[in-house]
Protein 1
Amino acid sequence: MKASIKSLTDDYAAALRAYLEGGGEAPLFRAYQIGRSAVAAGIGVLEVAAAHQEALVLDLLHLLAPDESALIAKRASEFFAEALAPFEASRRGFQEATGVLRDLNRELQQRIEVALKDYQAAQAKLDERRRMEALKDEFISIVNHELRTPLTSIHGALGIINTRLGANLPEEARRLIDIAYRNSRRLARLVDNVLDLQKIESGTVTFEIQTQPLRPLLEQALEANQPYATQLGVTLVLEETPPAVRVAVDGDRLIQVLTNLLSNAAKFSPPGERVAVSAATSDGYWRVAVTDHGPGIPESFRGRVFQRFAQADSSTTRPRGGTGLGLSICKLIVERMGGRIGFETSSGRGTTFYFDLPMEGAPGEAADTSACPESR
Amino acid sequence: MSRKPLSRILLVEDDPDVQVVASLALSEIGGLVVEVCGSALEALTTAPVFQPDLILMDVMMPGMDGIAALEALRKDPRVAATPVVFMTARAQSHEVARYRALGSLGVITKPFEPESLAETLRGLWESRDA
């Protein structure tokens, strides 16, 4: 490379000498060509410039007239402008790229800021919602306490009169005390139901789901509700169930649902009748059914059965003492446990309320069932 | 197991009407000896003197609540072993579990049935350490 730079300097010097010796512009054009081909051959632009400079300085510069010197400088600057053009282009490209990057950066930053603001707003909303929920829970807990305290004294006072003094009271007073006493109990149930409904609906209630055998839960529910049914002259019967049926439920809540269905069934059964509870597979679920032989649900009411405070006939409200919330609570509970609730009814023949629960360990149960073919 | 039957109850309840009704239900119907305290703080000073067999206590009371009172009673050697039954609005099963874990013998839901209040307490009393 050194040799070729040396020859480059020599070539420049020769071209300049030819020019000075009266060669016109041709030698200058030749110098220009020398530079171009040197760059094309891979010699760096700065080295070419250095060779050009050296030729001028060493040999000839002092001999040139000022206008000649300007012409050479003009040619040289044209040459260097051309040689540097690609670099200039890439410098501009680099600047543009830098500009684009800077814009991108700014845009990204703006987006991040917007996203951050959105996030903070969402967080604030969430905090606010949590705060409101906590306030609501606290409010409900206070209402619960405040409603129950007077109810406790009313119910307690009436109960004591009933137990201790009932026999000494005139017939009319005894009847009225009995009405008040029963209704204070109903009011307590209504408070329970309203709060229960609100708690389940808002999700603040904890369901303690455990996989457990179904039959003991059915037995417990029947046992707990038989005294009430007996008062109405109704017998609760648990039919044979498939063995080893297991369900993933909150046991207390399942019994709450059964209690509701059983007391409804007993309420609407003629005295002397039976209410049957059964469990069987249905469409991939375990179906628990409570069947009565009551009057059936009037057609006009069938669409509103699970609505709040809906009762078929306002005349049934009083003697039957319901709160009108039982079935909507049942529906919420069953759905929270991954199940579904429904009914079949036939006027004058009776009603079956059922709920379906997802099957647990279905294959094992299937084997058990086939081992006991008489079970249903 | 042969133990002395339940006879002395300390009732801790801030509502005066509930105090009357509950103490009548326990004494007139239930045949128990009842002392009434209107606050948890009063109960902390009365309990060691009255020496009840069992303390029936409201949970939600102004000032010190039933939970704090139970913790304080447990620290007083004179009444540390006295069983406590809470009386409260219907509690969820995890709340009942928490009361049990704190050392209460049981929970009675308000409104209670006056005819059976004393019987329920006797049942809980008999079931101790069973």
Protein 2
Amino acid sequence: MEIAQKTLLAKTSRLPAFGPFDVLFALILAAGAAYALHAFGEYMDIYERAILVCTVPAAAAFGWYWKPMRVFLLACAAVALIAVGLYQGQLVRADEVFLLKYFVSSQTAIMWMSATVFLSTAAYWLGMLARSTFFERSGTVLAWIAAGAGFTGMLVRWYESYLIGTDVGHIPVSNLYEVFVLFTVLTTLMYLFYESRYATRRMGAFVMLVISAAVGFLLWYSFSRDAHEIQPLIPALQSYWMKIHVPANFIGYGAFAMSAMVGAAYLLASKGILTSRLPSLQVLDDVMYRAISIGFAFFTIATILGALWAAEAWGTYWQWDPKETWALIVWLNYATWLHMRLTKGLRGAVLAWWALIGLLVTTFAFLGVNMYLSGLHSYGSL
Amino acid sequence: MKNPAPARRPRSQAASSLYELLSSMRFAIALLTVLAIASVIGTLLQQNQPFNNYLNQFGPFWFPMFQMLGLYNVYSTGWFLAILAFLLLSTGLCIVRHARPMLHDMRAFRETARETSLRAFHLCAEGRTSLDAETAAARTRAYLAANGFRTRENPRDGDLLLAAKQGSWSRAGYFLAHGAIILICVGGLLDGNLPLKLRMALGNKQVLHGEVSDVSQVPPTSRLGEGNATFRGNVFIPEGKSASVAVLNVDDGMLLQDLPFIVSLDKFHVDFYPTGQPKRFASDVIITDRDSGKSFRHTIEVNKPLTYRGVTLYQASFEDGGSRLRLAVHSLVPGEAQEEGGRHADHGDHASVPESRLVEAVVNEALPLAYDGQQYTAEFTDFRPFNVETVGQQASTATGLARLQQHLGSGAKSRSERTMKNVGPSFTYRLRDASGQAREYINYMVPTEQDGRWYALAGMRESPDQPFRFLRIPTDEAGTVDAWFALRNALLDPKLRAEVARRYARGAQQRESLRPDSAQRLEETAQRTLQLFSEQGFDSLGGFIEKTVPQADRENVASALLKVMEGTTWEAWMLARERAGEKPVEPTAQRIQFVRDSLASVSDSMHYGSPVYLQLVSFEQVQATVLQATRSPGKPLVYLGSLLLVMGVFAMLYVRERRLFVLLKADGRILMALSTNRQGLDAGEQFARHRDALMNHLDATAAQRDEPQ
Ligand code: HEM
């Protein structure tokens, strides 16, 4: 009776179980961080060490909360380590070693990411239109590969930057090209998370579409502007704040982009288009709300981190620089969205339209400001 | 919170409806929208530029209108601050209005809920247990506790209602987040320029205009004391100098802020990457406390500010701090160049001036010059010890797979040929004539290579919004500009060019065995061509052809004149060599190219707009740092507010308030109901889980269960 009672009580708990693989995963993470601290600790300042140490429980918790993350992170790390091994400390080997040149050097990995994003999008569309589970499944697999290739590419690129020169090396979140890769990886992962949570692959066609657009831009930017070249950091960017501010921002941007695409699906479905092939309106509405919530929460953090960084780099936490101001506009936009939904109980098409239009505002804050307005945010002018 | 009851009864009808309005969601949403739109305006127009820029941009009609609307500093105008004030008010009242109901809600368990109301819940289920009342109650209690619920019990008429809840913190999130917004706004206003504006409005502070040469002479009416609690200003310090005031920009003028310490700049460092991007800006400073007299050294870098006595110093930028330049003056006035040379205005002696002479200039200072009977002032504005430029950037020509191949590999390499090159030191100055008109010049110290030929680059522009146009002076075999100046003088000086024309005709006569009268005509043609050329270069020749030659013959005439010009330029060079006591040289392909380049740049030099070319001979660099000094008392408030905001947002969005009611009836029937403040899709699933588990736990047989859809 006692034991039966325990299991009964445990079963009702919402949190996922903590199994042996979770322990192993946490230990591997800890070991990796310990090695990094031991080998490179002297080159890091106190904040960078703190960030590294904090990454361990954060990643462990994330892996515990969403199990596939463990395999994903370990696989990416393993492939990145293989690449590092193949380099043997010489950049030229990227052109000489077959495996590097065609698979795991950073640019190649990013090309693989781009290709698989397109393929995944196509597979999701085929799957949706032909009601084919096979194609939907392929879409998921390809999306995982895309995220993995992109993340591995970023890790390898990080290493490559140090091969150029120890003073050039930096985390690859420092310019528009790099953050587009980051955006692709984060948004894909976020989508995959909701796909598994809601147990439906039917939103993939829409969400992967916006990711494909980002990849399209990335390729254009790389092929026509040589934007992929690793550049050293100008003094204002040499800060540990960058490491947390930029990713936090892109969780926000990614989530907002996703909510907009789900909003588009909602609008179509509510007009009777593709209705039978898309998840129910309630599911779409719920995903839209979840995405905007997580996006808003992280965007809040990111904006605050940006303010803290600005205080250190420019001496003022807020100076109405166009980039800052547009971040505020985006934030106000989604704050209003949340108010409408939560306090006015608004649902349905209005909010879906709003989420869709929100993407325009977000895209302007993300890209348009760099293209059309001048300001202090020096990186990534087009 | 659909219909929150008003927190208290306001007195009058009007006050009550005003309160209703200001604290309403409608008003809040309208405000957020208005704030967003107002913020956009300030990003479309670059803010806080010198007023002159706006005047140029908008013209005299719109400029004052836009100024009145405050479009040049939107974020500190009255109307913008008013929006913020309303936001503060609205959020404040909103908190007040929701405080009572929400606090009540946080505490309440609603254990008095009646059966009928429980049955009306969206998520509701029924069952029946054969356990006795005691055991059933005990098991329910244990279940609720194990699942993180706090429970209050209400026994009535033999029945027992267990009212359980969790996640009340969600409500606290509301207070945290909205209170945080108030904190952040208040903190931000303290650090903005509102306090300064208030002081200006109240006190008798006087804004300074123009340049301040001696800080100690500035009267107290234009200074702010050490005690000032909030300010942001710039401190400019050349190497080896000190400063103890910061300059605050106010409207279109400035005020001085006394600092509680003296900052001396020992050395300023700027490091570059091999690619030319800046790598590090750092100031080695010595801070001396004005009260205690104690001092210490510190290095201030970008992202590494220094805080001392409540004032934080940041590395904001850097400038030239008065580098000393030694310049050779080359006159561009024909005749003067060879015979008299340039002269410094201080020396009026015409006869004994050498052909070029040296002057000493200091950046940030002005140097008077007299040329061609005119007075000029050269205002030296900047010096750079090196300039890294991209040369020879070519787009890749590969296509298809080959193009993709180029994009594989590491992120390190560049697919297009691009090299960075340091083109050496440069300096800039404005040359102002007697009427006050100025042009801006930039000269490079060392010649630059282009297509295997070397040029000294001299840039000029008429106004700061234009790009520099460059005069490319070809350098001679010794690498100097002397040959070009001598050649130019021989080509343009009336006396010498007569001789040039004569020699040119004589040469042609010998080479092509012309008859004497043809030679005579050729000399006259050369004379006239040179004379025309000396007015506006090729422009004059072109104008002449257009005016006098029929369309059909223009091309022939033009090439004939060009041939004459090239021939005479060669002769001019030879004449100049002869006058300098040098031997004539044989024409080689290289020398002919030199003559062609010289001719082109002599023509361009007609538009240079200056009677002199200043050549940098040597320099002694002095740098200056610009530090930003701030005191921002609002910062702790803003940071605290930020922390609370994050906590509040997460609490509101992710802490779910759940109320689970379990009614155990005396006859063994069980009624369960669940409510949550965020009716997400998973609420039904949650409820089902609790229902199944608890019913199981109570060994209950399910009676009719309302399946949540
Ligand atoms: C810049 C200003 C504001 C921001 C950023 C803001 C932000 C938020 C956020 C993020 C939420 C949570 C939404 C959710 O739970 O999903 C919220 C809820 C709410 N806000 Fe605001 N808010 C602001 C101003 C206001 C104002 C002026 C009012 C007054 C009418 C207000 C009233 C409310 C109410 C009543 C809730 C619902 C709280 C609950 O039910 O738990 N907010 N706000």
